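Handout, section 3.2

Students often ask what a structure token actually looks like in practice. Rather than define it abstractly, here is a full record for UTP--glucose-1-phosphate uridylyltransferase. The first block is the sequence as you would receive it.
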Amino acid sequence: MPASRLTKAVIPAAGLGTRFLPATKAMPKEMLPVVDRPAIQYVVEEAVRAGLADVLMITGRNKNALENHFDRVTELEALLESRGDLAKLSRVNESTDLADLHYVRQGDPKGLGHAVLRAHMHVGNEPFAVLLGDDLIDEKEHLLERMVEVQERGNVTAIALMEVEPEQISSYGCAVVEPISGVFEGEEDLVRVTGLVEKPKASEAPSNLAIIGRYVLRPEIFDVLRETKPGRGGEIQLTDALNVLARDESIAGGVVGVIFRGRRYDTGDKLGYIQAIVELATAHPELSEKLKSWLAEFVAGGFGEAGK
């Protein structure tokens, strides 16, 4: 099939966020703040920077806060305007005007593959991106833009890979790879993916290239997902469907791995979430200098009373 221009992004956001209980008992994990924005806004902004302003969120029960955040709040806007607080008004309007947002419920929690399959009606017969909300990519990086370019140029499926320490690979999907050839030959950040293994033991891992939460997919993935049986955890795994595409290039042109060596924050993990806040806050124009000064004092003082 001929390549189409990508315009659509899908963000699965139906998870319960159990690793952050009780904070996520009444608040979606995607709405946990990272400095001055909820985590989900960083992900939508990344999609928009890559030219994907048509965004579909796959949600679940108790996720109304996601829709409310990206909707207008006329009372708040009027209050800020009456006070002349135009800076805050501008920040509020940024989230409202950010993208053309749509929502669909996943229904049964049958895994990431099932969540992606729920996007078919909206996406149709076009390539599209999938962005997982737990992975925040530093806004100075251009991972998604690179993946979109690779997909469009080669009419392939593109997945993001990141080198991890061998002992960490058991926490990720792992890629079986070989050198790239054809139209991409000689491009050092690209590899041909010939297979995927979900969370292998370190001693059995075929590489140290872990799959991270960015995918640019051809629409053939929907047909494969419909035939994908529940796998690990009794869920329909996106990794299993991608494995089919990786092993048979005739289905959708094969799978290309884009190796990312920039800054990524795993906000689905408590430590990763805190690290994201600290690193992004140290780059924030309003917080940077004071925070860096305080951190230096905190470390020099043996981490203060809290660390004793």
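Discussion prompt for tutorial groups: The first strand starts at residue 8 and ends at 12. How would you have guessed this from the sequence alone?
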